[in-house]
Amino acid sequence: MSDLKDFVIEDGVLKKYLGEGGDVLIPDGVTKINRNAFYMCKNVKSVVIPTGVTNIGAEAFYRCSKLQIVIIPDGITKIGAWAFSGCFSLESIFIPDSVKSLGIFIFADTELR
User: Fold this and answer.
1) Helix (H, G, I), strand (E, B) or coil at 82
2) Residues 85, 106: contact at Cβ < 8 Å?
3) pLDDT one-digit tens code per residue, 47-95
4) Sign (positive or negative) of CA dihedral 7, 80, 50, 41
5) What pTM value is reported for the model?
6) Do residues 16 and 34 touch, judged by C-beta distance below 8 A?
């Protein structure tokens, strides 16, 4: 599991994940996942996004090649371009009805199993 020291968070915005990977639980209080926050974090296997996050930035999880499961809560309204592109191992993700804006190529180079 992740620790607070694994995250750079400023004013509710998750700027960068610094942890070693595995199962990541984003801390409560985060309202946005910034562009490239998990960029090429090759050892992240699962991510649980907390209620309160409304925006997943462009390329937020770009090339997280071992990412298998993403839990997205209701309340997310925007997922940026290329957000999950290159997540070759992705097996499970659910996009809630609250999402009103999807960027281009959010699953490019990804084969959902």
Assistant:
1) coil
2) yes
3) 999 999 999 999 999 999 999 999 999 999 999 999 999 999 999 898 9
4) negative
5) 0.92
6) yes
